[in-house]
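thought: user wants a sequence for this fold. calling inverse folding tool.
action: design(structure=
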């Protein structure tokens, strides 16, 4: 194992499997160094007029915006950057996104395998799941002719109302960084480039192109930037996509502090920074660290061609910057092997095998939140089951926006969301062709299974009364471009659930949602299954959990608050005056929107709840099982922790062991410092060893990491709110540079 520096917090077996596979295929730091040297030689051979070819690109689609000429070799998708034939430099053909090859409103007349949402994948707490998913979607991208996958979303979840919560991973920098790194390794094992995005602090969709994030350097370094840093160490992504928002006054895609100082200087990263689509304010972004203007039709001008060339001709500083921009893009191309292993459109895709990858991810990431009286798993001999709501007869919900993926034949159900504008098709509410109703019938072939869509509560209640068990599918649609106003289920579903639960004491709620939701009916139902957006085989995965073929092992990667009043910002900034706008552009040209992230600083999610001494509806790390586990025997030797996990129940199952820093010199300082997903047969026990990254114990002060001398208390936890006996060790004072 050559490149990763961070070894904390993962299943040792999972890490070994993922990394050994990746080591032979995905580029590592040595590959990048060799590619960088080769890129420098190519730059020297470039003619002046060739130096602005790789620095900008288009969306190769007819958007009705201008008259962009689409090259003959382009594949309809997110982006196209021309190559340089004379020098053997291939064109970059780009597609969204982290959950699979984007459907782009069906423009290619094809489908792809949809992974479950990012937050579901994170709920597996299993880097191997992320690696295998990344390898799968990277392979499909390559088979469709793409050589860049705009994946690797790792923004921390600072607000559960964020419309893109479903795309991202978690609220914790360690969990997010380790998982996104595994996904990137998988993607790049296919000789294609992956990004890591959106750099940085992209926390809301409301006013997304002008919201200005206020945050101190220390708070950023200890939270969101640490997630990116770990992800870069683990995955070696060859590109970074910068964000729409502003950070401390400057556009993220023209932010000298983020792009030049931190990413390129302090971290020594060698790849190239591409803009998000429509995120470039002007040519000055180049001198502030942006290497490539993406989707240039969406910007106010094409800045990285003639304007860039003119600056380079007039100023040696700009000329050197342009050379560096080209060198970085070429480094990524060479490190990925895009020139030697070109992606060819029309490659064979084994959709059946790939669907199994998606289904396994869904099974591992579904979280059992409540199971009163052991109602679940359901008996396959059940005589009658009422299935209600959620278009369960048609399919399972997926999130909207640029990451929208649909299979062959397109969605089973489509509901328009926003008028008939150019982006309307991109954010429509779509359902994958994987019917939970059909899967439930297959699991219980002798049962009388009835379905009601839930539009009329009276009708749903009548069927619930007639059945032994009522299973309600409740949905919360979320999409890029739009935040949700609160955490309640829309369209009267809270009332529907309460009425059905009153009619049938054996009511199960299955949630298909983008992020945390309120549950005013929680005390009235027997069981709650968190299925998120479960992907291409979500219906089968849900039924497998409901009937016990799969023992749920998912754990929450994000806190479910009991109330929005518990959040650092109970009112989402701009929610009371910003009009819904997918593009996120200012309406007046001078809109001012500010979000203060210094309120919570680096204490995101469960750390904020610990600091405020608040109890969540369901805490970070929470999840139930059909068996029981015991985790104990924690010992620490330096920064190496060992303990034992035992399955004390009668069923095989997976436990996610969680190790937390609980106190530092007597002060509450809660941080996840290690985790391991462990598979155990009934009665089996296994030892686990984790190595703690010292950055997780440290503060960022005066340009370096600092850990004070003193007593550090650690504890194993069932989740972030339920910690076991604390074990303390004394550590010396230490400080070190990035």
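)
observation: tool returned 738 residues.
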């Amino acid at each position: 194992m050559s490149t990763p520096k961070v070894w904390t917090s993962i299943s040792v077996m999972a890490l070994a499997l993922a990394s050994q596979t990746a080591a032979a295929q995905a580029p590592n730091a040595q590959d990048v160094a060799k590619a960088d040297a080769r890129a420098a030689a190519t730059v020297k051979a470039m003619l002046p007029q060739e130096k602005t070819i790789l620095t900008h690109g288009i969306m190769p689609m007819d958007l009705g915006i201008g008259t962009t000429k689409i090259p003959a070799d382009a594949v309809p998708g997110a982006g196209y950057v021309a190559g340089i034939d004379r020098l053997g430099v291939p064109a970059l053909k780009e597609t969204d996104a982290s959950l699979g090859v984007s459907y782009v409103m069906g423009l290619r007349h094809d489908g792809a395998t949809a992974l479950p949402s990012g937050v579901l994948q994170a709920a597996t707490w299993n880097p191997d799941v992320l690696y295998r998913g990344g390898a799968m979607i990277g392979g499909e991208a390559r088979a469709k002719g793409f050589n860049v996958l705009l994946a690797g979303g790792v923004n921390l979840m600072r607000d559960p109302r964020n419309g893109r919560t479903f795309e991202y991973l978690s609220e914790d920098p360690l969990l997010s960084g380790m998982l996104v790194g595994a996904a990137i390794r998988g993607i790049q094992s296919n000789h294609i480039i992956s990004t890591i995005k959106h750099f940085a602090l992209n926390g809301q969709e409301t006013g997304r192109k002008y919201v200005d994030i206020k945050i101190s350097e220390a708070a950023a370094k200890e939270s969101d930037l640490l997630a990116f840093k770990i992800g870069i160490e683990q995955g070696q992504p060859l590109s970074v996509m910068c964000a729409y928002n502003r950070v401390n006054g400057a556009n993220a895609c023209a932010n000298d502090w983020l792009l030049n100082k931190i990413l390129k200087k302090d971290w020594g990263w060698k790849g190239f920074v591409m803009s998000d689509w429509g995120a470039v304010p002007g040519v000055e972004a180049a001198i502030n660290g942006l290497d490539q203007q993406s989707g240039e039709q969406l910007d106010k001008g094409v800045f990285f061609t003639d304007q860039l060339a003119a600056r380079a001709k007039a100023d040696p500083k700009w000329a050197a910057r342009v050379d560096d921009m080209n060198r970085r893009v070429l480094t990524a191309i060479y490190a990925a092997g895009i020139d030697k292993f070109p992606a060819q459109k029309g490659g064979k895709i084994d959709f059946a095998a790939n669907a199994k990858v998606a289904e396994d991810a869904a099974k591992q990431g579904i979280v059992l939140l409540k199971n009163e009286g052991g109602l679940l798993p359901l008996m396959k001999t059940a005589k009658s089951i009422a299935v209600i709501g959620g278009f369960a007869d048609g399919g399972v919900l997926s999130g909207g926006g640029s990451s929208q993926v649909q299979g062959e034949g397109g969605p089973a159900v489509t509901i328009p969301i926003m008028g008939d504008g150019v982006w309307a098709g991109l954010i429509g509410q779509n359902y994958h062709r994987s019917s939970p109703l059909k899967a439930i019938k297959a699991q219980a072939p002798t049962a009388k299974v009835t379905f009601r869509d839930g539009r009329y509560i009276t009708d749903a209640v009548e069927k619930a009364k007639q059945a032994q068990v009522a299973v309600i599918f409740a949905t919360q649609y979320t999409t890029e471009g739009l935040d949700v106003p609160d955490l309640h289920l829309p369209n009267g579903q809270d009332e529907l659930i309460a009425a059905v639960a009153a009619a049938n004491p054996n009511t199960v709620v299955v949630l298909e949602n983008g992020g945390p939701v309120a549950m005013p009916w929680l005390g009235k139902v027997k069981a709650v299954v968190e299925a998120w957006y479960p992907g291409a085989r979500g219906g089968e995965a849900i039924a497998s959990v409901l009937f016990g073929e799969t023992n749920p092992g998912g754990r929450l990667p994000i806190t479910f608050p009991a109330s929005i009043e518990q959040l650092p910002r109970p009112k989402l900034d701009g929610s009371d005056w910003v009009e819904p706008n997918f593009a996120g552009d200012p309406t007046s040209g001078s809109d001012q929107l500010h979000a203060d992230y210094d309120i919570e600083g680096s204490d995101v999610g469960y750390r904020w709840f610990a600091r405020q001494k608040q109890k969540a509806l369901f805490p970070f790390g929470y999840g139930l099982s059909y068996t029981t586990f015991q985790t104990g025997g924690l010992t620490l030797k330096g920064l190496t922790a060992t303990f034992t996990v035992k399955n004390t129940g009668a069923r095989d199952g997976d436990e996610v062991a969680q190790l937390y820093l609980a106190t530092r010199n007597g002060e509450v300082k809660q941080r996840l410092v290690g985790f391991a997903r462990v598979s155990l047969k009934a009665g089996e026990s296994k030892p686990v060893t984790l190595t703690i990254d010292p950055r997780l114990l440290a503060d960022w002060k005066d340009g370096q990491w600092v850990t004070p001398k003193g007593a550090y208390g650690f504890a194993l936890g069932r989740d972030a709110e339920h910690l076991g006996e604390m074990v303390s060790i004394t550590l010396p004072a230490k400080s070190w540079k990035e």
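thought: summarizing for user.
answer: Here is the designed sequence. The longest helix spans residues 316-336.
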